[in-house]
PilZ domain-containing protein (Planococcus chinensis), 112 residues
Amino acid sequence: MFSGRTENYRHSFGKPPEVVMMPSENGSEALYGLLLDISLQGAKVFSEAELDGGQGSVALKFQVHHEVIRTEARLVWKAPHAYGWTYGFSFRKDPVREMLLAKELASMKELS
């Protein structure tokens, strides 16, 4: 189904943290959702609101462990769900964000 995927590890959450999605269109309101899983390259998000499939980039803001992370992402796929939509995002390449996210995910893994 996702034949182009090259990443190996995705972290799922017991209680998904909230994520704020800011579409790049001027005047678009923030949308809220839940971060279902994450890797260093992308994330899967659930939201009751529908994002336009033609969105270019979307700014995401979420908290993993202790750090608030802000990143630009591209909407790769979306699928209808009984109560909303599930989205797949690909993060813009950012070595600093990747390092911070890897550190936070490792800290969470040590706690479990």
